[in-house]
Design goal:
The chain is an alpha+beta fold. The protein has two domains: 155 residues, 2-Layer Sandwich (60s Ribosomal Protein L30, Chain: A); 146 residues, Phosphoribosyl-aminoimidazole Synthetase, Chain A, domain 2, CATH 3.90.650.10. It is 31% helix and 21% strand. It contains eleven helices and twelve strands. Strands 8-10-7-11-9-12 form a six-stranded mixed β-sheet, covered by helices on one side. A four-stranded mixed β-sheet has the order 3-6-4-5, covered by helices on one side. Strand 1 and strand 2 form a beta hairpin. Helix 1 runs parallel beside helix 4. The longest helix has 18 residues.
């Protein structure tokens, strides 16, 4: 075993605490901009403080938590040097999940692991997280920036997030209320969101690329070129489009008292492995898909990747959201009310399918 008796500072070991302090200073205003009335103090302490006084007005408040990451979409962010939207992806993946229970997101915490901290770099990432929190109406009350020299490349990073929300138990959504005859209404995604990027990267040829090499620079330039298949957008623009946050339309319809039986957030595993999570054990979802194609608009980027990968309709629906970002399940007599409320809020809801007797699976009309 080799050891040393010479003086070695923390900075000599690769950890720049001064730059870490500058990074914290750079994000303080962004964090403060997400505050809610319940936030106590600010960042810099050993824990984030959030008053639970408002929960006393609920009959039976239930705290619901969620945690997630952004996945290998971060490889594209690093290749393209685009870091301002992946923070919104991080927030979206967490808050959209707890919405499936009818919960209002209250606060959010983030964890950033990075090879070497640079204040301006961190500011871009946290700006996206703060923007996501604003869109979700939750407060960014804390987080952690961890520098990992020798474990990660200097500009390599990973993100993780954690959110807590609340719902009054009598109003909590319950998939066991879903019955045959219920209708499935969808809200559109903004593209691939944050799932399926391992396949995406393989299709576009960046699954094994090394950053800061001539090959990487050439690939970045290629991805920035407009494509006719994407209506003139570039692959870089289409693939870095952030995950949509659905908090506002969901809370709007719930606050109006519209009777929602269940909600599904369509993430990893696509429609096939997410819509089933909103079903009772004796009900199947029958999705309208004549001739293998959904009846609603599929984002061009999803069609492009699916075609390049030569995915079958079932493979595509098990990999991507196919343009269905969030699904409501309601009784048929509630459908018109829900659709009208969503349209009044500026949304573009569409019919997805219906519920039929079954065993808790997703089926397609063309099978």
């Amino acid at each position: 075993m080799t050891t040393t008796n010479t003086h070695v500072s923390y900075e000599d070991a690769g950890v720049d605490t001064a730059e870490g302090g500058r990074a914290v200073d750079a994000i303080k205003a962004m964090v403060a901009s997400t505050n809610r009335d319940e936030v106590i103090g600010g960042i810099g302490g050993f824990g984030g403080l959030f008053s639970a006084a408002a929960l006393k007005d609920m009959e039976d408040p239930v705290l619901i938590s969620g945690t997630d990451g952004v996945g290998t979409k971060l490889v594209l962010a690093q290749l393209l040097d685009r870091h301002t939207t992946v923070g919104q992806d991080l927030v979206a993946m967490c808050v959209n999940d707890i919405l499936a229970s009818g919960a209002e997101p209250l606060f959010f915490l983030d964890y950033v692991a990075i090879g070497h901290i640079r204040a301006e770099y961190m500011a871009k990432i946290v700006a996206g997280i703060a923007q996501g929190c604003k869109l979700a109406g939750c407060a960014l009350i804390g987080g952690e920036m961890a520098e990992h020299p020798g474990v990660m490349r200097p500009d390599d990073y990973d993100l993780a997030g954690f959110t807590v929300g609340v719902v009054d138990k009598p109003k909590m959504l319950d998939p066991q209320r879903v019955r045959p005859g219920d209708v499935i209404i969808g809200l559109p995604s903004t593209g691939v969101h944050s799932n399926g990027y391992s396949l995406v990267r393989k299709v576009i040829g960046v699954d094994s690329i090394v950053l800061h090499t001539p090959e990487a620079l050439a690939k970045r330039a290629e991805l920035e070129q407009p494509l006719p298949e994407l209506a003139g957008a570039s692959l870089a623009d289409a693939l870095m489009e952030p995950t949509r946050i659905y908090v506002k339309p969901v809370l709007d319809v719930l606050h109006q008292g519209i009777d929602i039986h269940a909600i599904a957030h369509i993430t990893g595993g696509g429609i096939t492995e997410n819509l089933n999570r909103a079903l009772a054990h004796d009900v199947d979802a029958l999705v309208e898909r004549p001739s293998g194609a959904p009846t609603w608009d599929v984002p061009p980027i999803i069609s492009y990747i699916s075609s390049r990968a030569q995915l079958t309709p079932n493979e595509a629906c098990k990999t991507f959201n196919m343009g269905l970002g969030l699904a409501f399940i309601v009784a048929p007599e509630v459908e018109a009310t829900l659709v009208a409320a969503l349209k009044a809020a500026g949304e573009a809801p569409f019919y997805v399918g219906t519920c039929v007797p079954g065993t808790g699976k997703v089926r397609y009309s063309d099978e």
